[in-house]
Amino acid sequence: MTLKAQHVSWRRGGTLVVDGVTLQPAPGSTVGLLGPNGSGKSSLLRLLQGIAKPDSGTITLDDTDLALLRRREVAQTVASVTQHADTDVDIVVRDVVRLGRTPHRSPFGGELARDERIISEALEHVGLTAKADRLWHTLSGGERQRAHIARALAQEPRELLLDEPTNHLDIRHQLELLELVAALPVTAIVALHDLNLAAMFCDTVVVLQHGRVITAGPPAEVLTPELIADVYGVRAHVTRDDYTGRPTVTFQPGPPKGEVLRPLQASTSVRSA
Amino acid sequence: MVVGEQGRALNALTLPVAADSPSRRERQWSRYGAASVLTLGGLIVLAVSVGVAVTLGPADVSLVNVRDILLNHLGLAEIPVRVSEDAIVWQERLPRALVAAACGAGLGLCGAILQSLLRNPLADPFVLGVSSGASTGAVAVGMLGLGGSSLGLSGGAFLGALVAFGLVLLLARFASSGTSGVILAGVASTQLFSALTSLIMFAFADSDEARGVMFWLLGSLEGMRWNDVGLSTAVVGVGAIVCIASARSLDAFAFGEDVAASLGIPVARTRVLLLILTALLTATLVSIAGAVGFVGLVLPHAARLLFGQRHARVIPATIVLGAVFMVWVDAASRVAFAPTPLPVGVGTALVGVPVFVLLLLRRKGRA
Questions:
Q1: What is the assigned CATH class of domain B52-366?
Q2: Which residue among A6, A43, A77, B34 is least enclosed by CB atoms within 10 Å?
Q3: A50 near A74, Cβ under 8 Å?
Q4: Average pLDDT over residues B104-133
Q5: Tell me: the pLDDT tens digits for B160-211?
Q6: Distance from B363 to chain A by nearest Cα, in Å?
Q7: Which residues contact A160 (CB under 8 A, 6 or more apart)?
Q8: Measured between beta carbons, which residues in chain B are less than 8 angstroms from residue A73?
Q9: Where are the transmembrane segments (chain B) (predicted)?
């Protein structure tokens, strides 16, 4: 009973950006989507949200094809925060968060006390209560990001899709945000660049390269120096943190061991060889 | 992970709520109450404006006489009035003022919708090429005699507007990108039909004809009759109902189409529905009164500055403000250079720009 992708592929402008991906997150778990720029993380999130339709394969929500559901029905269960969602409208933070109530209200339905309480709690969760009456354009990048997260929380989702939610955030807010996401009783699928954050907060990580799933599993099994060298083309040292028991990745300058420096593209041929 | 944090998170998303607590009823009432009182107040201001506007003109008619004439025609009284005054008020000024109100309301409404839908503060009802299509249609009928006498300037303008909008939809579909595609298609279509209009006028018109068409294009409420009142208020009424029902969807467009979709809005359907609605509404109004500029561009901004960004308020506010504004500007443009009438489109810009600047300054002072 969750959001699943089965063998989905999506061709965008002639390029296969998502290539036969299957994703079946355990309900309530936090899944990290990893991979370099252009590996298909954002595209996969668009498909999971139903904003784009796959060319082949299916996305299902509770075993119903997403394409057969009305947008409103999807939005009552699935919330998402994309990158670069900005506005010129003079809107205050509280009204941004209020947008999250949209799928739960009818065109002529009134404001309910319950809506107001959910909005306040969402603001509290991301630490924006004091800035609820501020105008959007006066917020910093990190505050905007948190406002979007609060908007998604106000949607009361069961599935939460986040595209690089820690962008623009300082380290404290990065940690707080992911801690919150991991603690929420939702299935969260989170595209992340920071491997250490993924290792700390994700139950499962899925590594994408050129639109394909390279490997998936618990961070401790997946995040190895070999994988990091293969997928990202960098040299890394992975240790186990004594306190958390989670892997910690330390990067080192220079090309991966045993490889001469060359473009990222070449790493595929190494893997398939 | 801190246990307390987790508990709070769980509570936030799962707490059940008593169905009909008093606070809920109160809140609903107060929110609707405030909006209704404002709307009601606006409608009273509008009615008074129409009443006063009707008294203005070369032949003075007192407010009391206007009231008597109205009561007579509504069958509520039998008060003796002068036949000439009755004709001026009932046959000329009142229909004209009411069409002005409908045009102001409708153009303001279209502007508000398009600015939100296309996420462009410079969008106005004519961004979809409707007005330049209408002018081409009008000159084609007026100067080339296309369609014969049955069509008339209005009919030609309406058809021209629809052709231009059809072209915009077609181009936007080929461009297949979101809002910017629609705007670019609108620009292309506007340019094309403006060029066609100029070509026809250049090649076929004598100067008197050209002046007549130009006057009409700038917007004119000369010679409005009751059938114009019926048509314009009917389309504006339907448009207003659909748009107020879409208020929440329009709010969701603030952060673009992807966010709107993730909030459960059927983006493509909503967009096409509202684009077609605004195009039909604009085409109808332009065919009745010409392309009255400025109202659709600036009145929505005025409504936002005064009443905030939420469409549940912006839409009714724009409708009322647009109607009141247009009634007064039309009255002023009738009276200012009497007996020579000023095109109402000139008046809207001359009066509207200073008002808008004042609003901007007020906003700056508040921020």
A1: mainly alpha
A2: B34
A3: yes
A4: 89
A5: 889 998 998 888 877 666 678 888 888 899 999 999 988 888 887 677 777 7
A6: 11
A7: A78, A79, A80, A152, A181, A184, A186, A187, A188, A189
A8: 264
A9: 32-56, 94-114, 126-147, 153-175, 182-205, 272-299, 311-329, 341-361
Domain residues of chain A, as ranges? 86-155
Angle of helix B207-217 relative to helix B130-144, nearest 10 degrees, comes to 150
Chain B residues inside the 8 Å CB shell of A180: 5, 9
CA distance A19 to chain B (A): 22
Residue A212 confidence (pLDDT) above 60: yes
Contact present, B357 and B302 (Cβ < 8 Å): no
Q: Is B350 exposed, middle or buried (0-12, 13-18, 19+ CB in 10 A)?
A: middle
Quote the minimal CA–CA distance from B352 to chain A in Å: 22
**Alpha-helix residue ranges (DSSP H) falling in B118-178:** 130-144, 148-175
Closest residue, chain B, to A84 (C-alpha): B255
Minimum mean pLDDT range among A114-118, B56-60, B331-335: B56-60
Extract the tokens encoding A189. Answer: 């699928």
Q: Between A112, A121, A183, which is nearest B5 by CB?
A: A183
How far CA B96 is from CA of B71, B89, B106, B152, B227, in Å, comes to 18, 10, 15, 19, 11
Pick among A73, A112, A243 to test the B interface (most B CBs inside 10 A):
A112
Query: How far is the alpha carbon of B189 from chain A, nearest alpha carbon, in Å?
Result: 26
Residue A58 to residue A20: CA distance in whole angstroms = 10
Chain B hits for A86, CB-CB cut-off 8 Å, are: 255-256
Pick the residue of A90, A123, A129 with the most B CBs within 10 A to test the interface with B by mutation. Answer: A90
Q: Strand, coil or helix: what is A47? A: helix
| Chain B residues touching A85 at Cβ < 8 A | 255-256, 258-259
- Is there a contact between B190 and B132 (Cβ–Cβ < 8 Å)? yes
User: What DSSP designation does A59 have?
Assistant: E
CB–CB of B287/B103 below 8 Å?
no
Which residues in chain B are closer than 8 Å to A185, comparing Cβ atoms? 9-10, 13-14
What per-residue string of b and e applies to A182-211 under the rule 16 or more CB within 10 Å gives b?
bbbebbbbbbbeebbbbbbbbbbbbbbbbb
Answer whether B288's CB lies under 8 Å from B231's CB.
yes
Cβ pair A89:B309 closer than 8 A: yes
Q: Which residue has the tokens 């001359």?
A: B350
Query: Are A251 and A234 contacting, i.e. CB atoms less than 8 angstroms apart?
Result: yes
Query: Whole-angstrom Cα distance, residue A223 to residue A51?
Result: 31
